[in-house]
Design brief:
This protein has one domain (12-143): Alpha-D-Glucose-1,6-Bisphosphate, Chain A, domain 4, CATH 3.30.530. It is 24% helix and 46% strand. It has helices at 23-31, 33-39, 125-143; strands spanning 2-5, 11-19, 45-50, 57-64, 67-79, 83-88, 98-107, 110-120.
């Protein structure tokens, strides 16, 4: 897990997790609004709207600690249950959309997840590493167990 250089225009966060579920279950947790609401916030909960198709849009509003932070994006690739890629725009990611790619691979005790968030402003690498890390922990604990 670490941050490194990405293509021009930003930096990247890369996280790995072994999750105790099938790739189908993990993919559903990333695309089903009811499941997303349970984990896609570093604290509190989320409200999610999803139009799951290439070119479809989503909205995730993280609710907690007296704040509502809206994140929006467009699906770039939808290949269940192995790969999901989408743009990600929030008040913290700058004027240009960033790109998140989630790759899922079968593993002996579940599913290996690789998350890569690219095109981030340099000052957002550390906060997004921590934020995605907390959310992936919540995904494992609150949705997949």
């Amino acid at each position: 897990m670490g941050a490194g250089a990405a293509e021009p225009g930003g930096s990247a966060v890369e996280l790995h997790r072994l999750l105790p579920a099938t790739a189908e279950e993990v993919f559903a947790a990333w695309t089903d609004p009811e499941l997303m609401a349970r984990w896609m916030s570093a604290g509190g909960h989320a409200e999610a709207e999803v139009d799951l198709r290439v070119g479809g849009r989503f909205r995730v509003t993280m609710v907690g600690q007296g704040q509502r932070i809206e994140h929006t994006g467009e699906y770039l690739e939808v290949a269940p249950p192995r790969r999901l890629s989408f743009t990600w725009t929030s008040p913290f990611t700058g004027p240009e959309p960033t790109v998140v790619t989630v790759e899922l691979s079968p593993a002996e005790n579940g599913t290996e997840l690789l998350l890569r968030h690219e095109r981030l402003p340099e000052d957002q690498v550390k906060p997004h590493t921590g934020g995605w890390g907390r959310m992936l922990d919540r995904l494992a604990e609150e949705v997949l167990t």
